[in-house]
Amino acid sequence: MYYTGICPACEQGTLGLRICSSQLDLVILCDECDALWISSDTSVSPVFPKQPDLPCPSCKGNLSEPPAHWAGLGEIYERGWLDCVKGMAD
Description:
This protein is mainly beta and about 90 residues long. The protein is about 5% helix and about 25% strand.
């Protein structure tokens, strides 16, 4: 999982880059508290999608089930978010 930092909401989760079910949208999702951002600006307040489905704000697809997935480097590059990647985690 490529990440952008540590979650400012829970201060312990990793902020991963996730592709939504429609395969179109890239979001930032905390792997601990499920805080979600639809832009690379994590200084704004996050959205907390309804549990357990974690619906994408754009397509309403489930962010936790395939075809949604952690974004690969190519997908991040294609969407212009490469500059926000801080590293890669397991």
